[in-house]
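Hi U.,

Before I forget, here's the chain from the pilot set. I'm dumping it here mostly so it's searchable later in email.
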Amino acid sequence: MMVESFLPAMRERVARKLADEGWSQGKIASVLGVTQASVSLYLRSEERSKVLLNRLGISDEQAALYTSLLAEDLRKDRLYALNTLYSLWSDALGRGALCAAHREAHPSLAQCSMCLVKFGPEVAPGKDAIESVASAVRLLEGSSVFVRVMPEVSVNIAYAPAGARSAEDVVAVPGRIVKVRGLPRSFMRPEYGASTYLAGVLLATLPVNGSKRAAMNIRYDAKVKRILGKLRAQTLYVKGGLTFAEDLREALRSTAGPFDAVVDPGGPASEPGTYLFADDPTGVAEAGLRIARSYATIR
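Structure:
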């Protein structure tokens, strides 16, 4: 089902989206790992992806979200996009979205619950850490004002439980938190290893910011800068010039910490951003909501 339906459908949808954005067929083929002839076929043939995905129980709205997330990740890093693809598929398995299609093809599996057991949230390791992030996500989803401070690259929340040493030990939201009809929405349950980038930022700050084990990214502009000042947030401003990871390491060498926020000035190909930190996921979500509530009142 993955190889014959989901993967080709998503390749087609992402190819069409990137082509609409002006990408050449050769560049699209390179990031998708297919031939240019395949991309040409995707673009000139009648769209098959909707039928394929609907048969799997994936709605048009979910398909559009999946496409946006994968296209966004492919612009950054193919491996990151591959991780997102795996998370999307695992989530669909764990929610039972594919069970009807699978049982229709194989009636003998009518009583099968293997995917629900293997990928479902009820058996996830470190359930308390996962539920902590899930609660923070629900706070954001209940706020219509939070979208004011959501960046173009979307939002994630990461939490590093005690003993976390790598991205695989950090809980985050697969596919991130996105804007849907004016509200923040997450379509997948938090899980371990769901973020490479934000997890890396959080882990890098732990030696200086030890008690603050949760992080979240929001936008950065003149208004957010003023709000951080009004809130008297301890803010670490990172100089641009290198990659953000290198710039952050350089900034951390010269700070005693702790701090509440890190500001990434962005660059020619990257959006400026603010990283908020707190002791737990709920704390970092509340910090983001405080900034969002003030955002409309700042001139």
